[in-house]
Write a structure and sequence with these properties.
disordered N terminus; 7 strands; 7-stranded antiparallel β-sheet; 16% helix
């Protein structure tokens, strides 16, 4: 898995969002404040909820990432195994699960943008195996 802190893989330059997470959540210690969606800052769920809200949708109070697929389905959003740019990659793996924003889709992998992939509360652009996630389509 290729990981690029704060950089963009050459194959995905067109769609990369970049670290646009608001400084009021980014520039303070991880888990020190609660965001507008009732989630702790610099966590994957906060980053995803922030980006979903930018598109006029809401993941308010969706909780840990492992619950996002079920909560999204219950709210009428499509959840499937087909990644698309802009969809939310979601897995139940680990204690809390994980969510990320799909930047681009490749042969068997997706480039995602997320926070806290490595447990340190930082933004990251990296490639993951596409079959490791479900995909939530909030706005695409």
């Amino acid at each position: 898995m290729a990981a690029h802190f704060g950089t963009v893989p050459a194959s995905s330059t067109a769609g990369t969002i970049g670290d646009i997470y608001p400084s009021k959540w980014r520039d303070v210690p991880q888990d020190s404040v609660v965001d507008d969606w009732n989630m702790y800052n610099r966590e994957c769920v906060s980053w995803a909820a922030f980006n979903i809200a930018r598109h006029g949708e809401s993941a308010n109070n969706y909780g840990d990432a492992k619950y996002w697929d079920d909560n999204a389905r219950n709210h009428g959003y499509r959840v499937d195994n087909t990644p698309t740019a802009g969809s939310i990659a979601q897995t139940d793996n680990g204690t809390y699960g994980h969510v990320a924003i799909v930047d681009s889709v490749h042969n068997g992998t997706v480039t995602v943008e997320d926070y806290n992939w490595t447990g340190d509360g930082h933004y990251l652009v990296h490639d993951v195996n596409a079959s490791s996630f479900r995909y939530i389509h909030f706005y695409n």
